[in-house]
Amino acid sequence: MKKTIAITLFVFTCFSLSVSTAIAYDNIGDTKEKAALIDTSLQRDIDALRIEVNDLAKRVEATEPLGTRDERRKQYFALDMEIDKLDDKIDLLEDRVKADYIARILTWEEYRSIERELETFEERLDRADDMLEKIFGIND
C-alpha cells in the first residue's frame, strides 16, 4: 500500500513538473534555449539511472553466495529488491518522458530516443536479474 501511494505521488509530481515545465518552456522564445533546458534536466536523470543500472549489474556479476542457506537467501532477496526498485525508477522516468511528450515538451523523435535508451536499461536489469537467479540457483 505504501509503495503504491509513493509511486502514485511520484507520478503525480512528475506530471505536475512536466505541466509546469511546459508552461515555463512556452514562455521561452528561443527553441535552442528550450532544448537546452530539457536536455539538462532529463539528461541528468538519464545519466544517473545509467550509472545506477551499470553499478548494480556489476555488483550482481561479482556476487558470490556466502554464508548459511538463510544468509544466501537474504543476500539474494536484497539484490533482487534493489533490481526491482531500480526498475520502478525507470518506469517512473518513462512516465515523466511520456508526460513531457504529451505536454509537447519533447518531440516524437526525442521521446522515442529516450524510450529506447530506457529500454536498454531495463534489458540490462533483466539480464542482471537472470544472472542473479542463476548465481543463487533460484528460479523466481
Q: Give the CATH topology.
A: Topoisomerase I, Chain A, domain 4
List the helices and strands in order: HHHH
Helical stretch tally: 4
Mean pLDDT value = 82
The count of domains is 1
Notes on the protein architecture:
There is one protein chain. By secondary structure, the protein is an all-alpha fold. The chain has one domain: Topoisomerase I, Chain A, domain 4 (Orthogonal Bundle). It is 85% helix and 0% strand.
Mind sketching the topology for me?
Blueprint: H1 2-26, H2 31-61, H3 69-102, H4 108-136
Helix pairs in contact: 1-3, 2-3, 2-4, 3-4
Give a short summary of the structure.
With 140 residues, the chain is mainly alpha-helical. It has helices at residues 2-26, 31-61, 69-102, 108-136.
Based on the model shown, name its key terms:
mainly alpha; 140 residues; single chain; Topoisomerase I, Chain A, domain 4; 4 helices
